[in-house]
TrEMBL record:
Native species: Spinactinospora alkalitolerans
Domain annotation FAD/NAD(P)-binding: ranges: 4-324
Protein's recorded name: NAD(P)H dehydrogenase (quinone)
Record GO terms (molecular function): flavin adenine dinucleotide binding; NAD(P)H dehydrogenase (quinone) activity
The reaction(s) this protein catalyses: a quinone + NADH + H(+) = a quinol + NAD(+); a quinone + NADPH + H(+) = a quinol + NADP(+)
Length: 462
């Protein structure tokens, strides 16, 4: 008998799990409100990284003179000369997001997945309502995502006070952008808009940017931000944001005010778990409204699973997708390994990028993990020198006695790609000797990964 799977939400947790379930022979329906790909593809990850890619290209242009490349008769290239047509940039951002959504939708349909447009609601652990339609299910997966948190004293208006999902409707580059929140999202957008030509002020409630990231990496990035002209206000909690004529005023908790043309609020996420029948069927939520799940994505209600941002478990698209796959493998009787967060690789898409996986140096310094650490600056790497790259490093962490790779941090160009080697080592429990004896292209940035491994090799006892 064919298993009927109904998935509420078409983001990475939804469409990736649908593909797995279809591959395993299930009858799969995806109920989606906003478009396949969800917020990740349509308003969050894909659009933001497209915008950031544009800003990195802008940096290439403005830094070109340092490599001996001049445009016209100008000895130096600046942003005022180059200029940004934000309307064109945003049109491309939206177009690529829609194209990715369409490609993903076409893939689902090709694999035999039914897509139902609308809002799904559980009226029973095995019945999903979409309007007047009732869809019976043997297995239900909740992947409804989350939305930007709003402060009552800083209500977004879509014009001057914005969430990151509203940025792509702007027709002109913000002259003076204030970014409230110095976590991953705030740092990425502050960096991108500064590169595009905005004067940016980053308001951080902590003493430095990216407080949840590796301390050395955060220090490098904050230094880059400041050197490029960004104003970073540490230990400065925003109390309110209000309109003032054609601009905004951000009031800080200590009484200071910051004025700008626009304000971007990046102060967290709220799960999309209201009014979809979860608590009525016995699905437990935590105090923040996130669905509580175990390591194979089961909720407290038999037959009902959950994945992605609505669970609050490491809110990354890659984690959502893996949670969804694990849910389907488990529900459909396949062998499955529980989710292991210690092997999750993550990236901050600033310029330079910051990527990390596994154990942190803070874990080592606190004594929680017995390990050795090496940190190699990128400015000694020949490929980095060729590109004029001076900011960044490769940090590798291995177990004290066995040399098993436990984690790593990379700050530099394409760190999101470079981290894969370290991620594979962590996942497969490779040793620094394994990495050290692996060929790396010369010259390459990846050569710093093998060099770091060689630095951690221990001499054999005589």
């Amino acid at each position: 008998m064919t298993t009927k799977v109904v998935i509420i939400g078409g983001g990475p947790g939804g469409y990736e799990s649908a593909l797995v379930a279809a591959q395993l022979g299930a009858d799969v329906t995806v109920v989606d409100r906003d478009g396949i790909g969800g917020a990740c593809v349509l308003t969050d990850c894909v659009p933001s990284k497209t915008m950031i890619a544009t800003s990195v290209r802008m940096s290439y242009v403005t830094d070109a003179a340092k490599l001996g490349i001049n445009v016209g008769d100008e000895p130096e290239i600046d942003k005022d000369i180059v200029g940004i047509d934000l309307k064109t940039v945003n049109a491309r951002v939206k177009r690529l997001a829609q194209a990715q959504s369409a490609d993903t939708s076409a893939r689902l349909i090709k694999e035999g997945v039914e897509i139902v447009a609308g809002e799904g609601r559980l009226v029973d652990p095995h019945i999903v309502a979409v309007g007047d339609r009732r869809i019976r299910a043997d297995v239900v997966l909740i992947t409804t995502g989350a939305h930007p948190r709003e402060l009552p004293t800083a209500k977004p208006d879509g014009e001057r006070i914005l969430t990151w999902r509203q940025l792509y409707d702007l027709e002109a580059l913000p002259e003076n952008l204030i970014v409230v929140g110095s976590g991953v999202t705030g740092a990425e957008f502050a960096n991108a808009y500064q590169a595009l030509g905005s004067d940016v002020t980053l308001v951080s409630s902590r003493d430095h940017v990216l407080p949840t990231q590796d301390a050395d990496a955060a220090e490098v990035l904050e230094g880059v931000f400041r050197r490029r002209g960004m104003t970073v206000l540490g230990n400065s909690r925003a109390e309110s944001v209000s309109r003032s004529g054609d601009g905004v005023v951000v009031k800080l908790a200590d009484g200071r005010t910051v004025e700008g043309s626009h304000c971007l609020m990046t102060v967290g996420m709220i799960p999309n778990t209201d009014n979809i029948g979860l608590e009525e069927i016995g699905v437990r939520l935590d105090k923040g409204g996130f669905v509580q799940v175990d390591r194979v994505s089961r909720t407290s209600t038999p037959g009902v699973y959950a994945a992605g941002d609505c669970t609050g478990v490491n809110m990354l698209a890659s984690v959502a997708a893996m949670q969804g796959r694990i849910a389907m493998w488990h529900a459909l009787g396949e062998a499955v390994a529980p989710l292991k967060l210690s092997t999750v690789a993550s990236t901050v898409f600033t310029n330079p990028e910051l990527a990390a996986v596994g154990v942190s140096e803070a874990d080592v310094r606190s004594g929680r993990v017995d390990a050795r650490v090496v940190n190699l600056p990128l400015d000694t790497n020949p490929r980095a020198k060729m590109h004029g790259t001076k900011d960044g490093f490769v940090k590798l962490i291995c177990r004290q006695h066995t040399g098993i790779v436990l984690g790593g941090v990379i700050v530099g160009p394409r760190a999101s790609e470079l981290i894969l080697a370290v991620s594979v080592a962590v996942q497969q429990r490779l040793t620094v000797d394994d990495l050290a004896h692996t060929f790396a292209v010369y010259p390459s940035l990846s050569g710093s990964v093998t060099e770091a491994a060689r630095s951690l090799m221990q001499a054999s006892p005589e």
